[in-house]
UniProtKB/TrEMBL annotation, chains A, B:
Enzyme class at the top of the EC tree: hydrolase
Cofactor(s) recorded in Swiss-Prot or TrEMBL: Mg(2+)
Record NCBIfam families: ruvC
EC number: 3.1.21.10
Pfam assignment, any one: RuvC
Catalytic reaction annotation: Endonucleolytic cleavage at a junction such as a reciprocal single-stranded crossover between two homologous DNA duplexes (Holliday junction)
Family: Belongs to the RuvC family.
Chief localisation class: cytoplasm
Organism: Streptacidiphilus cavernicola
PANTHER family: CROSSOVER JUNCTION ENDODEOXYRIBONUCLEASE RUVC
Annotated residues for binding of Mg(2+) 1: 7, 141
Keyword annotations of the record: Cytoplasm, DNA damage, DNA recombination, DNA repair, DNA-binding, Endonuclease, Hydrolase, Magnesium, Metal-binding, Nuclease
Protein name: Crossover junction endodeoxyribonuclease RuvC
Record localization: Cytoplasm
Length: 176, 176
């Protein structure tokens, strides 16, 4: 399966595409960031993120999308922008009928390093090793997005079956 | 000018359309709410809000959009959803090239009642009076959306000129 991971942010929205299945070798397809300038108003920044993400969806045709779950207890200054960027990512996926799953940062860290409190460097090192890259992906937002995709491939098999069952049980007007 | 006010929320997203100009009588065009069921996942709720708001944009063709500015210090439980719903409203407007302005709740209360700490009932009463309605619009989210639109009509004249000047001074690739 092909998973697009999104580490949402207004200034740098990390994106990473990984092919894989539980128990099989992982393959990085692409990674990068969608950037928007801080001097632009929020509405236009969100529009640029939408346009940037649409290109990633068009180019890589992911089957599943994993987005970092945003918590309000983080840095209050940036958390609203992060929540808004994550809304754009969810919209882009759901509009195309692609299932979206949210993972918390500690779920991602635990999945790829065995430690829910792993630091950035450790996450970067594990992403590099698991995807057999020559160096950690830069910027860190791109590495985090790849980590999300890997987490989803490993955790997702069970979760997706549950989500599919829930979707099937849902009244028809909510389905896409 | 025709202003669409949006009081963002995942469960009830208030919408209100008002025609008017500073110093002229105001006219309510329509008001209501876009609702999404709490049992749906966030991604699909955001999609339903997008689809609901698109209908309001199509039907009423607003020239300006006013969205309530969300603060992180509010109820932490609901604030993320509110921020995400506001992102959808901003996207819908900006995609159509319609200028979006954010107003804080106290700006809105002060504009329409003279008191930045006015309660819901007072806001509802002033909206009813200013729009010459027979009764306060229900639910309160619809009244709040109308209050936002009125606030924008009254405060907006100056703000819009500034925004237009800023937009004109912006590099071309950021403009729509």
């Amino acid at each position: 399966m092909r998973v697009l991971g999104v580490d949402p942010g207004l200034t740098r929205c990390g994106v990473g595409v990984v092919d894989g299945a539980p128990g099989r070798p992982l393959r990085m397809v692409a990674c990068g960031v969608v950037r928007t300038p801080a001097e632009l108003d929020v509405a236009h920044r969100l529009l640029q993120i939408e346009e940037g993400l649409e290109l990633w969806f068009d180019r890589h045709q992911p089957e599943l999308v994993a987005v970092e779950r945003v918590f309000a207890q983080h840095n209050v200054r940036t958390v609203m922008g992060t929540a808004q960027a994550s809304a754009v990512a969810m919209l882009c996926a759901t509009r195309r009928g692609i299932p979206v799953t949210l993972h918390t940062p500690s779920e991602v860290k635990a999945a790829i390093s065995g430690n829910g409190r792993a630091d950035k460097a450790q996450v970067g090192a594990m992403v590099t090793r698991l995807l057999r890259l020559d160096a950690p992906p830069k910027p860190a937002d791109a590495a985090d997005a790849l980590a999300l995709a890997i987490c989803h491939i490993w955790r997702g098999a069970a979760t997706d079956r549950i989500a599919a069952a829930v979707a099937a049980a849902r009244p028809k007007e909510y389905r896409r």
